[in-house]
Every structure is written in C-alpha cells, then in structure tokens.
Design goal:
Layout: H1 4-15, E1 22-26, H2 29-42, E2 51-54, H3 55-60, H4 70-89, H5 99-118, H6 123-126, H7 133-139, H8 145-160, H9 164-174, H10 176-189, H11 195-207, H12 212-218, E3 222-226, H13 233-246, E4 249-251, H14 256-259, H15 268-274, H16 290-296, E5 300-306, H17 308-325, E6 333-336, H18 343-349, E7 357-359, E8 363-364, H19 369-382, E9 388-390, H20 391-398, H21 401-406, H22 410-421, E10 425-427, H23 436-441, H24 450-462, H25 469-488, H26 499-515, E11 518-519, E12 529-532, E13 544-547, H27 567-573, H28 578-593, E14 598-604, H29 617-624, E15 629-634, E16 648-649, H30 653-662, H31 674-682, H32 684-692, H33 707-729, E17 733-734, H34 742-758, H35 770-793, E18 796-803, E19 807-810, E20 819-822, E21 825-831, E22 834-840, E23 848-849, H36 864-879, E24 887-893, E25 908-909, E26 912-913, H37 921-936, E27 942-943
Parallel strand pairs: 1-2, 1-3, 3-4, 5-14, 5-15, 6-12, 6-13, 7-12, 13-14, 22-24, 23-25
Antiparallel strand pairs: 8-11, 9-10, 16-27, 17-18, 18-21, 19-20, 21-22, 25-26
C-alpha cells in the first residue's frame, strides 16, 4: 500500500533537486512528521531537508501580529464588550456581566469573529440590527423571499417573547459591529490578533498585490501545498495568490469515488475547487481510485454492531488481538475515535500484544481524579454557611482516595464519627484536629483567593509520597493550568458581597476551561499502534483501519457550537453551516479508508430514548450505495434470567450459638430489643441479615427531616427539661406552677441540644438557618405541646426518664438458658395508682390494635408501635413486687394525636381505651414465648416475609431481589 505522503515524497525527490529551496505547507504538524519519514527513506545521501510548515505557520510569516492564548483573547473581548455596553446601552457597573458570566458568550462571540474573518465577510454589513425589518429588506435584496421571511420571523419572535437569555443575546447583537471593530483595533494596536484576523489581514494584503515583502520571503523558493480540503476563504485566497504569482503547486488528497459523484458530500469542496479559475488548474487528470479498486477486487469491509460503547470496545480489542497474532503490524494499524470519551475504555482494553501506543488525542484533564477533587473543593467552599460546611462535600473529601492515602485512612475514621453524630452542618472548628492536609482544605477562603487555595492544596497533594506517579502527573498539569489562569485573570473578579453567586459562576467558568485542557501522551509518533481523533487522520494512511462510534451524533457530530449568527444568515454570507461540517467529516471518513487494505467499522446498536444515535449516515452510504462488499455482523448479549427462588436460611449450630449470644447480657446490650423483635415478626430474613449475620447497612448522614432526626432532638429536649426541673426543685414531683414562664428555659435547652448535636462552641450564639431552623421550630412546637399536656395532667411524679436496665426473662423449650428482653423507656410517670409508660414518637403511628394476637401476626396489618409500647409495659410490670395493684397505662405521644384537643393518653384495643395493661400481660407473654420458641427452633428456617408491604422500606430488599 502506497500512501498519499509517500507519493508526495517520491514526487519531491524526483522533481526537486535542491531540496532546501522547497517549502511544503500541510494542514497539520502530524502530516509533516510522516512526510519527513518517507522522504528520509528515499534519499540516498545526507543533505538539507526542505522547509515544512503548517498552514498557520506559513500565513503567520506574513503577519506582524502574535496570536495570544484564547483565555487572554476572551479577557480582552470582555473589556471591550463592557466599554461598548457602557457607551451604547448606558449600562451601569451593576448591569455589566462579570468575566465568569461573560465567558460563555465571549467564547461564542470570538468563534463567530474568527469565522467572519477567515471567510472574509463584510463585517459592517453582517452586524446590522436584523430586528429592523426594513433594514432586512434593503440590505438583503439578494436573498430569496423565503430567507428574508425567515430573518423577519426569527428576530420578530425574539422581540415578542423576551427572556433573560434573549435580551442578553439581542443586547450583544445590537452592539456587535462596535464590539467587533473596537476589539480588532485594540488587539492590532497592541501587536496582537486572533487567528482569523491574522488570516484576513494577510489575504487582504495579497489581494491588494502587496508583494514586496512576500517576494522576499518566498524568493527563489518552490512552494507546494499538500493535502488540503475544506479551505476557508482566506486560505483559498492565500493558495490562489501563490499559485497565480509564484507558480506554487497544489497536491490534492482525494479519491475519484466521491470527487466525481455529485451525490457524495465528501467530494463537495473538491468539486467547487475544480471550477475555480486558478485552483482548478492544479487538479490532476485522474485522482486515486482506492475505493473503486476495493469494489472491483471485492475487498471485504467488516461492519460490526455491538450494544453500548463498551460493547464496541471489547469486540474491537478482541478482533485487534486476533489480527495482531495473525500478522498485523501495530505501526500499520489505526484506531479512530470520533467520540473522545471512548479513549479510556479503549486504553483499558488494548491487548498487551499491541506493544507501544501513539495517542494523538491527549487525555482530558477533566477525566482525571484531580478534576473531581477540585470540584469537591469548589463544592466545599460553596457550602459554607455560618462557619459550618454542608456534610456532603466534607464527607466526599474525607473518603477521596487522595486524602485516604495521605492520612493513612485517618479521614475515614473521622468520617464515621460524623455519621454517628449525624451532623448535616459541620462546624469548621470540628475539623481543626485533622491531619495537616485537611487543615489546608477545611478553611473558609476569601473568594478572590480561590485559585491560590487550589494551588496550595494541589501542590501539597502532588508532592506527597503517598500519591502515585500518575496522580502526581495530574497534579502537575492542574497546577500549571491554574498558574496560567492566574496570570490572565486579575484579582478581585469575585464580589465578596455576592460570594456564593459569584463563586458558583466562577466554578462554571473553571469547569469550562478545564474541559478544553489535555494532558499529552508521551511517545514516538511514528511507532506503535496509532489511536487518533477524526481530525488527526488528515493526510495519513494506514494498512489497517478500525473506526468506532459510527453513529449519528458521533460521526458526524450532532452537537453544533452556539453562534450569534442564524443558519440562513450564515448561508447568505458564505459562513460554514452544519452542511459544511457534514461534508468535511464525510471526506475525513472516506479518506481514512480509501487506501486501507482492511477496514473494520463499529457502531452502537442501542439508540437513546428519543431514537437518536442510529447508525451513521456515512456507514449507511457504504452499505446501501457504494457497491462495496460489506460483511455485516450484529452482536447481541443473550440474557437468561434465573427463575426466582425463595431464600431460606437453615439454622445450623453456628447460627444457634449466635442467637444465644444475642439474648445474653453482653457489654451494653442486655438482651433482645423491641426493634429486633419487631424485625423478626415483620420478616425473619431481615432479622437474620441484621442481627445474626451482622450485615450492616451503610451508615449515612440523614439530611432529610426524618422521624429519627426529629425524635432524637425531641427526646433530648424533653428529658433535659425534666432533669433540670428535678435538679432545681430537688424533687421528682411535677406541679402546674412548674410550667410558668417555661418558654425561655425551653429555648435555652434547645440551644444546648443543638450545640451538642452539631459540636458548636458554647461561647457562640447558635445561628439557625436551613435545616437547623426547621428542626428547631418543629422540636419547639412539639415540646411546647407536650409540656402543655403535662401542665394539664399535673401534679404527677416522674419515676424515670430514658429508663434502661429493665429486663424480662423468659424460659423456653428450645433455648439452653433463659432469654433476656430489654429496652429503653422514654418516660415513666405516676399519678396516684396510675403509672404511665410514655413513648414519644414523631411519626403518625396508630394507637389502636385489635387483639394481642394481631400484634404477632406476620401476614396482617399489625401495629408495631403498640407492640413496642406493650413490651415496655411488660418490662415495667415484671419489675413490680408481686401483688402490686397499680394500673399500668402504656401510650404514645406522636404528631398525629399530640395536637388533637380531644386526645386521651393510652392505647386502644378494639376501640376501647386500655386503662390497665396488667390484665393483658399473660396473653402477651404467651404469644411472646411462642415467638421466641419459634426463633430458637432448629427445624424452622429464616424465611422471607409473604407480606410485600414490609419490603417497601427494607434496607435488605436488594439482597433478596425484592427491589
């Protein structure tokens, strides 16, 4: 197989004896590397090489202007835009956009200016106010009626339906001519220009025949332009000038298949240039006919469809491995990735047999772990409220691989402590005792020092011995990027008054800039397996070509970059449109395969929910129009789901021993808890997973105001109120007068509970915002209502608060020893001969149950809150001396009944108030013992519940396939 650049090298070697008098101009630098290689192979003896330049380098020779970094250009554009807005629209400083907010619009604007100049459009005419219909009619006399109506409708709609974005768009549009003119002049006065402006100035100079300086630079040199396709108008003028006045040669890289076929969009530009008065004469009589040769020789092109991107990658890697073993050479093989997101999956799938790799695309900095790390730093600073960070970014940072490695897992230990304390807002002072790297991270940062903050942390991470070499490389590139950013963006870009809003805006800018950054892969470009993006394949030919992601949206790309210039206006002025892009990518597709001896093309068989992402039109053209021999193969994943099987856990000796441990006093645990027994009744398998197998649910901080969070606060507040009352009175008697002016005391207690819960300083006032404010108001309202009810019920005697240590001991047949059941009772109070067992609930638990038996019924709708409260009553009655005749009244105080003015404390059995639970206890104990006998019976396995309602909020439903 002879490549285009080999042909060119042979021509240069044969027709140009003095090579150092030759200048060759290529579309890109990669073509220069390969051409040099081919020319070196042909030369028999050492000598001077010809001069080789890219088109940008060649044009820049004739311009005195330097092209700055894009970021610097947009920064300058922002200054010009702001000045124009002040002058033309009377915008005050408060109405002007910050640089961060302007960047998106500025990038779009700069892109439009680039195209306006590269295609040499009359800017003053283009940038008139198109919303004025009369101006449209006079200025666009050459447009069709359809185009004029389109423009009227387009701009008319904008004015009829204003919005923030449309207003912003129109404001900029109406000032575009001034912005364009002032921006160009300002840059030129400073000795700078963007690339389009450089091209325009050079092309205009050539058109004016200002040749004296040009002649000196190309004097006695033989010029060759090679491998061009979709020229901008400025490039076309440059080539035309040198062909016409300096006898330059042009070598076109094309194939007769698409050049001579008007239906093929890939040949669009060549057919236009063939009609050109000057460039048309440079066309050869006959182009290369590689695709026709494939048709004639019945060369097979393999087209493979696979599900999802990863499916394509795995099939490609397998095919590559087989072919490398069968004789393919890695350096003669090209993998083309239209979708850059495929790079990492491809790199992870390439077989070792491939050896060296040459990757032209560069690794996206935004795909590195460092990007995620910096995003978390942004989120951390954005979450800061009243000297406290929101838990989400804190928790994410504490478990980030960088901090885990540097702190030797200390951050993970601290993270578990925060989960235990359920801190939604984590005070800065709570984080000061962490390792040094954390002290750098968890601090409040002045918004204008955010880049310095990033630099210091990235430097600390990148220089730490615990970080691997690859992550150090990421840190180096991130540090360099931020350093470059600091040189361009001045201080005080963020308004401290609107810190969060401005910081969020800057975060968007930062993310946008990072996405454009690439980490170059080190390697020898002429060796090894070649992995390239579509644009990098220009002028290069390989024996074996594999192209992935041949779907609409990838090739051709479905995403068009934004523009201020509508499609029809672009068409009218000769600016590139979507059709232009499609024709360019069609050419790159066909030229990638035109000389290849083997071609493998891959596409994703799965379209998205809107039907987008179907097979690429270029692939469909090959299959249905080309006449090529296509071998199609669609790969499917065969999925055969296994039939559902009920899960049964049989009780072996090990399980029995674990059950015995659960029911014996051990550490703080005195025996089985009401929660454990409720779990067993609802689902034996859930009980097994949690209490026997010890499968822990991943602890998380609960951000939502669930019953557990509210209940915990309420318990502590009410308990502390009565503890302080007892300490103050030195008595457990509660009287109505004790509730006079209790509000101040209650608020103080709530503050104290919040300080403990959120680890706040005792020296500072508690600031209530967000969740804290909501929790405080709910807890305050609940506590006030409880105290109002208690005031009405007074006088009474507090027997216990948060009572622990009460135990019920049961003897059962299948257990070798007695079984202990215990629990913590929220409150026990006594009034005369009535003892109340009070259970505070913040949910909407029912107070009614049908029978004692119903509380143990797995299949029916049971009242587990009533079961738990009666179990507390059992614990209390078991502690009473024999013959005691007190009335034990168990009951719930919850949000459903708390604010009911007709509320009467106690449970209801069959709608009758339970005024004494003691007569119910024998029946309750019998059912309880029966359940415990079942629990310890080796013949009865742990099984899944039949009541699927019990699965709705179960933490283990994914383990038993009941999602």
């Amino acid at each position: 197989m002879k490549t285009f650049l080999q042909d060119l090298a042979e021509h240069v070697q044969a027709h140009h004896k003095v090579l150092d008098k030759v200048t060759l101009v290529f579309p890109n630098r990669r073509a220069i590397l390969y051409f040099r290689k081919h020319l070196t192979t042909l030369l028999q003896q050492p000598g001077f090489a010809p001069e080789m330049l890219t088109i940008e380098e060649f044009i820049a020779r004739f311009s005195p202007y330097q092209v700055p970094d894009k970021l610097k250009l947009i920064k300058e554009l922002h200054l010009v835009y702001s000045a124009v807005m002040r002058e033309h629209n009377g915008a005050g400083e408060d109405k002007l956009q910050s640089f961060s907010d302007f960047y998106f619009w500025g990038e779009m604007l700069l892109r439009d200016f680039e195209e306006v100049d590269k295609y040499m459009v009359e800017a003053s005419q283009l940038f008139v106010d198109l919303s004025n219909q009369k101006e449209i009619e006079t200025i666009f006399e050459f447009l069709s009626e359809e185009q004029v109506n389109f423009l009227k409708e387009f701009w008319g709609n904008f004015d009829e339906h204003p919005s923030a974005n449309k207003e912003q768009f129109l404001r900029i549009w109406r000032s575009l001519e001034s912005v364009y003119t002032n921006f160009s002049e300002q840059l030129l006065n400073q000795g700078f220009a963007y690339q389009g402006l450089v091209h325009r100035k050079v092309a205009e100079a050539f058109m004016r025949n200002e040749e004296s300086e040009v002649s000196d630079k190309v004097k006695e040199r033989e010029l060759i332009f090679a491998g061009f396709n979709a020229l901008t108008l400025a490039e076309e003028k440059v080539l035309t000038h040198f062909v016409e006045h300096f006898n330059a040669k042009v070598f076109w890289d094309a194939d007769t298949y698409y050049v001579n076929n008007n239906a093929q969009e890939a040949g669009t530009f060549f057919r236009e240039y063939k009609k050109h008065g000057v460039l048309g004469k440079t066309f050869p009589d006959q182009f290369h006919a590689g695709i026709q040769e494939k048709i004639t020789n019945k060369t097979t092109i393999q087209v493979i469809g696979a599900a999802q991107p990863i499916g394509q990658v795995k099939v490609m890697a397998q095919l590559l491995n087989e072919n490398l073993q069968n004789g393919w050479k890695a350096e003669e093989t090209l993998i083309v990735l239209p979708d850059e997101k495929m790079l990492l999956p491809v790199l992870n799938s390439i077989p070792e047999e491939a050896g060296k790799l040459n990757i032209t695309m560069g690794f996206p900095l935004s795909s590195s772990p460092m990007y995620n790390f910096v995003e978390l730093l942004f989120d951390l600073q954005l979450s800061l409220e009243v000297e406290a960070f929101h838990f989400r970014p804190v928790m994410a940072l504490l478990q980030h691989p960088y901090l885990l490695a540097i702190t030797n897992d200390q951050t993970n230990t601290f993270r578990k402590t925060l989960i235990k304390d359920n801190l939604v807002a984590i005070p800065v002072e709570r984080l000061i005792d962490l390792p040094p790297i954390c002290k750098q991270i968890f601090v409040e940062v002045d918004a204008n020092n955010i880049l310095t903050y990033f630099q210091q942390i990235i430097e600390a991470v990148g220089s730490n011995a615990a970080i691997n070499d690859l992550d150090k490389e990421y840190a180096f590139h991130y540090y360099s990027f931020i350093n470059r950013l600091q040189l361009i963006i001045e201080d005080n870009i963020i308004d401290q008054v609107n810190r969060k809003k401005e910081l969020k805006s800057f975060q968007r800018l930062f993310a946008q800039l990072v996405r454009a950054e690439r980490i170059p892969f080190a390697g020898e470009p002429l060796e090894g397996l070649q992995i390239m993006g579509v644009l990098e394949t220009r002028n290069l030919d390989y024996k074996h070509v594999m192209i992935l992601s041949l779907n609409e949206g990838s090739l051709p790309s479905g995403s068009s970059k934004g523009s201020y210039i509508p499609h029809n206006v672009r068409r009218a002025y000769g600016l590139p449109t979507a059709a232009h892009q499609d024709a360019m990518y069609a050419y790159l597709f066909y030229r990638a395969i035109q000389r290849a001896e083997s071609v493998n093309l891959f596409y994703n068989t799965e379209t998205d929910v809107l039907g987008q992402g179907e097979m690429s039109r270029y692939l469909q053209q090959l299959i249905f129009e080309s006449g090529l021999t296509i071998q199609e193969q669609v790969l499917h994943n065969t999925i055969q789901p296994k039939p559902w099987q009920e899960i049964l856990i049989h009780k072996n000796e090990e399980i029995i021993q674990q059950l015995i441990k659960l029911t014996m006093p051990q550490g703080k645990r005195m025996g089985l808890s009401p929660s454990a027994l409720n779990a067993y009744i609802e689902c034996q398998l859930r009980f097994y997973f949690r209490y026997v197998a010890g499968i822990k649910v991943a602890d998380e901080i609960e951000e939502d105001l669930d019953n557990r969070v509210l209940g915990d606060f309420l318990h502590k507040v009410v308990e502390r109120f009565y503890v302080r009352l007892q300490q103050k009175k030195k008595s457990t008697i509660v009287e109505a007068k004790d509730f006079e002016k209790y509000e101040v005391e209650l608020l103080t207690i709530i503050d104290d509970v919040f300080r403990e819960a959120y680890s706040l300083s005792n020296k500072r006032e508690v600031v209530y915002k967000g969740q804290r404010l909501v929790v405080r108001e709910i807890v305050k309202r609940f506590a006030e209502r409880i105290l109002e009810l208690d005031k009405t019920y007074a006088p009474f005697h507090i027997e216990a608060l948060e009572r622990e240590g009460l135990v019920y001991t049961a003897q059962i047949d299948h257990a070798p020893h007695s079984i202990n059941i215990t629990g913590i009772i929220d409150r026990i109070d006594r009034k005369e001969d009535v003892v109340r067992i009070v259970d505070y609930k913040t949910g909407r638990d029912e107070l009614t149950f049908n029978t004692i038996e119903s509380l143990f019924d797995r299949e029916g709708k049971r009242n587990k809150a009533a079961f738990q409260t009666l179990l507390y009553a059992l614990l209390y009655t078991e502690s009473l001396p024999e013959g005691n005749s007190v009335k034990v009244v168990p009951g719930l105080i919850n949000r459903k009944n708390l604010f009911d003015r007709s509320f009467q404390f106690g449970l209801h059995m069959q709608k009758e108030l339970v005024q004494n639970a003691q007569p119910l206890m024998p029946d309750f104990k019998n059912h309880l013992k029966g359940m415990l006998n079942e629990l310890f019976d080796p013949a009865i396995s742990f099984e899944q519940t039949k009541n699927l309602n019990n699965c709705n909020y179960c933490d283990y439903k994914s383990l038993c396939y009941r999602k």
